Amino acid sequence: MFDTIKEECGVFGIYEPTRTDVVQSTYFALYALQHRGQESCGIAVNENGIIRHFRENGLVPDIFTAERLEKLGQGNMAIGHVRYSTTGNINRANAQPLVIKHVKGPMALAHNGNLTNAYALRREYELRGAIFHGTSDTEVIAYTITENRLITGSIETAVEKAMEKLQGAYSLVLMSPQKLIAARDPHGFRPLCIGKTEEGAVIFASESCAFDSIGAEFVRDVRPGEIVVVENGEMRSIETHCGGKSAMCVFEYVYFARPDSVIEGASVHEARLRAGAFLALEHPVQADVVIGVPDSGLDAALGFSQQSGIPYGVGFIKNRYVGRSFIQPTQRMRENAVRIKLNAVRAVVEGKRVVMIDDSIVRGTTSARIVNLLREAGATEVHMRVSSPPFTNPCYFGTDIDSKDKLIACKMTTEEIAKHIGVDSLGYLSVNSVRQIAKNANCDFCDACFTGEYPVEPPAEMPKDKFEKMIPKK
């Protein structure tokens, strides 16, 4: 509906010492991670070495009815996934977890991230006779692990060997008949953390907010390059690929993650407050009220208000019953899409000089429509402040910024963008400040979408639909 940067995927895994209702725990956790992907979802459960699973396009509560959860049954291990496609079309074949069956037994896999060498790997496998059912990077990862599993003595050794071949961003949770495994790429582009319960369950999740939803306790983050294996209730670590320079996506703190999550030791909520405070220092303005665009703009707006002394107000009401699948069949409905999902509170903005905080501007279309809502509600001035720097480069590690020609900051100056979206002034957070918003984080950051300084060599070309366009060479 909006021309905003889309969320990442969310992964989850749980190992219980005894057979229990791990499916229910996975369901609640995926509900907590729903913000990371609304296109598809899935759950795989392990009972006595038999893996049952279900995956489908749609939201968690719509797909996993009470009847569906009951059919999945019980077990002592389960993994789950919510998906937004950064590569691969929206179809059921690309939903996760993937369940692979081979001579050494079944494996279920859930993945968050984006491989930079997926195209080359897939072509290599296809030329050797492999058959792919979907168009996502995850299937390439599954083939790479399976290839190594056939010649190694354990699933964790296969993962370790596969990581020598995989390039780019991947946070994985996978399940074999006896083991639950988590793995994170050597740069740690995407978050992945470990939790536990008083009953002895070990849990992996993209964000710590998933632990809160099931009464679990945060233990630590999976280290970049680390493989964590849970077997017979015991957890052990393999650190063969650890020790490199970390590069957590800084946009996790700006937008992707839930504000109640803690990533790499830093509170997402506090990071957004700091982003807003930095904005107030870098781009001060005389105004009557500060408002945020829901949801990720709200914390930054509060930080701007606290730093500037300008009162904070609730300037927008968000309709939470309109999902990303909302259909806009006519031009008039497309034009009114913002009104349907977002509405200005006239009592807060009428006759006021308004500072509006949002997390980013991609193409500028949605920003212009939101600004128009404020104008129509009676705002006398609208000053927009953005809690991230301008997007000027594509992302190759799991965010759907895939072309400079879609980024307004590559076509216009800040002053031209301000005029284009109809604001009285516009200010972006500086690169120096965005690097400082998560001050307690135990990692370095990837900010290549703002700077063009990639932690690893980017591919020459990697379009979002790279697999759909694969044409065999004659």
Describe the structure.
Residues 9-233 form the Glutamine amidotransferase type-2 domain. Its EC number is 2.4.2.14. [4Fe-4S] cluster binds at residues 249, 395, 446, 449. By secondary structure, the protein is an alpha+beta fold. It folds into 2 domains: 10-247, 4-Layer Sandwich (Glutamine Phosphoribosylpyrophosphate, subunit 1, domain 1); 268-445, 3-Layer(aba) Sandwich (Rossmann fold), CATH 3.40.50. It is 28% helix and 26% strand. It is built from 17 helices and 23 strands. The protein has helices spanning 22-32, 60-63, 66-72, 118-127, 137-149, 155-162, 209-213, 251-256, 268-282, 297-308, 331-335, 337-341, 346-349, 365-376, 414-421, 431-434, 448-451, and strands at residues 10-20, 40-47, 50-57, 75-83, 98-102, 105-115, 168-175, 179-184, 193-196, 202-205, 217-221, 227-231, 234-238, 248-249, 262-263, 266-267, 289-292, 316-318, 342-344, 353-358, 381-386, 425-428, 445-446. A 7-stranded antiparallel β-sheet has the order 3-2-4-1-10-9-11. Strand 2 and strand 3 form a beta hairpin. Helix 5 (137-149) crosses helix 6 (155-162) and helix 9 packs across helix 10 (297-308). The longest helix has 15 residues, at 268-282. The chain is globular. 53% of the residues are buried. Residues 324-329 have low confidence and may be disordered.
